[in-house]
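Example record

One chain of 130 residues, shown exactly as stored in the release files.
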Amino acid sequence: MRIKSFKPLFEIMIAAVLLFVIHKLYFLLFGPEKDLFYFSIEAIYGYFFIAAMIIVGILMLVRRKNIDSVGFVFLLITSIKIIVSYFLLRQIIINNGENLKSEKLHFFIVFVVFLAVETIETIRILNKKQ
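Predicted structure tokens for this chain:
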């Protein structure tokens, strides 16, 4: 395989690193006490990075077999990711507290950003000429 075929995975890696650095700088400069968070920011980014890599990797494989199924597979895998994310976030959803509100917000921001990155990569996979 050529390196060019792994371009979507490299783009996710670059986006994840840049977003993590920006988020980490925000925590260092303005952020709340992250030590009181249930999940560390590293764990949240790690989970969503691995999920994004798996999703895009599967979509790249599906595209080789049947390009017509890529959209449906994306919806299915993303739905599974949402369910898993809910179960991870369940502990901070049922509890209330000042830091938990901030943690919910940060978790949701990372979720939405990675969802956007996955969606952009899926669009690129679908628009790629055969």
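Notes: The chain has a mean pLDDT of 84.
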